[in-house]
Amino acid sequence: MFRNNYDNDASTWSPQGRIFQVEYASEAVKQGSAVVGLKSKEHVVLVAVKRSPNELASYQKKIVRIDDHMGIAMAGLTSDARVLSNYLRSEAMRSKMIYGRALPVGRAVNAIGDKAQTNTQEYGRRPYGVGLLVIGQDDTGPHLYEFSPSGIVSEYYAYSIGARSQSARTNLERNYEKFEDMSLQELVVHGLRALRDTLQQGKQLDTLNTSIGFVGKDTKMTILDGENTQAYLDLLDEGEAMETE
Amino acid sequence: MTSIGTGYDLSVSTYSPDGRVFQVEYAQKAVDNSGTAVGLRVKDGVVLAVEKIKHSRLLVPHANRRIMTASKHIGVATAGWISDTRHLVKRVRDEARDYRSTYKVEIPAKIIAERMGMYAQAYTLYSAVRPFGVSTIIGTVDADGPQLYMIEPSGQYVGYRGCAAGKGKQVAKTEIEKLNLDQMTAREAIKEAARIIYAAHDDSKDKLFELELSWVCAESNGLHMHVPQDLFDEAIQHAERSLNDDDDDDEMEGDDE
C-alpha cells in the first residue's frame, strides 16, 4: 500500500478506477482475527478466534446473535460491527412486528450492504472498517454471506475473513464439496480445522479464545464460548491425533 | 486512453485546462475493469447478458445476481462496481414506482433512461460526492416495442440496438456489429449473447466465471426474467461450441442440437 494523491477520501476515484479509502478499510478487516463460516444442507456454522489486549482483559466477542434465525461474526473495527449488528437486530424485530415473520437473510445483508455503500460515496464519511460473515436460516435453507466495507455482499458455501484467512480459504476450497451432507458436529470440527490454519506458530485453539456459532432448520441461533467449546475442541484434537498416527 | 490529469483530477467539480472532468473518466475506468455486460435489442424483445467473474470457487452458483428487475418488466444489467449498482437499481425501482403511482401507466423506457441519466449526472456536479462507477444497461418492452439504453458514469445515455460495457467490450462490440439484430428473435439472441460473452471472456486473466442471461419478450409475457434453464443450457452449449471452432463464424441461427 502506498500513499498517493487519491487516497484522502471516499469521494475520489484514482486514475485506475479504484477508491483507495475503501481498499484501506478492507485492510482494517485483515487486521482483525480470523473467522470461518461454512454450511451444509441443514446447518450453517461460524467459528472464530478471539483476542484479548492483555492478560488481565477479557477476550473480545466475535460472534453476535441477531435473532433466533440469524447471527454474525466480525473481523475488523468492532465498534463499527456493533452499529451494524444493532441495525440488523432492529430490522429483524421490525420484520417480526410488521410482517409477522422472520427477516429473510438475503434482504438483511443487502440492507447493510446498501448502508455501507452510501459511506463510500460521500465526502466526510468513512467506509465501515469491518467485514462480517452473516449466517442465517430461512425458507430457502441455510445461508452464509460475506459483507465487506465496499458494500459488496456475496453468498458462499464456505468462506473466511480476517488475519491470515487465506490459509483457511485454501483449506475450505479443497474441502467444501464434502460439507453438504455433514452433520452439525462434523461441520463445526471442519470449521475449527480451517480456523486453526490461520493461527500463528505456537498458538492453539482453546476454550478461552475459541467461539462457535450455528443455526439450522430446527436449531435456533446458538453461540458457544468458554467451557462449552471444549467438546468440539476435543473432537478436533482427536481427529488430529488420528491423522498423525 | 490513459492519461493522468495531475492537479485537476482530485474532485469532480474541477475541470482540467482542456475541458475534461477527470474524476468522471476515472469512474469509467472502474467500469472498464469489471466483467462484460451485453444488451441486444431484437425484433421481439431484449436480451441481457453478464460475465460474472468469480474470485472464488466457494461462491454459491446463481446466487450473487448481477442482472436485476425493476417494476417486473424492466431489466437492469450492469458493468462496474457492484455496490454502486445496487444503489442505482434501487433508484430505478423507486422511479418506476413513483411514475406508475402518478400516471397510472408503466414508465416508458426513454423516460426511465432519462431519469437515470439525470440521477447519475447529479453525482458528477458536487465535490462532496463521487460519480457512480457503473454503466447501466436497461432493457424493456414498452408501447414503442423493445427498447435498450445504456447510461454511463457521466450521466450520458444513448439508445442502442446492441451495446456492451466492461473488460471485453471491444470484442463484444465487434461481434455485435456482425449480427442482424432487426431480423433476430429473442430465442436466437439468447444464444448469440451467450456466445459473445464467452468470446469476450479473457481466460488468461480470470479463469472462473459464470454467465447470467435474462430476457424480456413475448415468450416471457412481457416480464423481465432470467432465461429458463433449458434455453440457458442450450445457449451455453452453443457458446462453448463456437469457442471451440477456431474461427468466429457469422452464423445467426444456432445449429440444431
Automatic annotation (TrEMBL), chain A:
<keyword id="KW-0378">Hydrolase</keyword>
<keyword id="KW-0647">Proteasome</keyword>
<protein>
    <submittedName>
        <fullName>Proteasome subunit alpha type-6</fullName>
        <ecNumber>3.4.25.1</ecNumber>
    </submittedName>
</protein>
From TrEMBL, chain B:
<protein>
    <submittedName>
        <fullName>Proteasome subunit alpha type-7</fullName>
        <ecNumber>3.4.25.1</ecNumber>
    </submittedName>
</protein>
<keyword id="KW-0647">Proteasome</keyword>
<keyword id="KW-0378">Hydrolase</keyword>
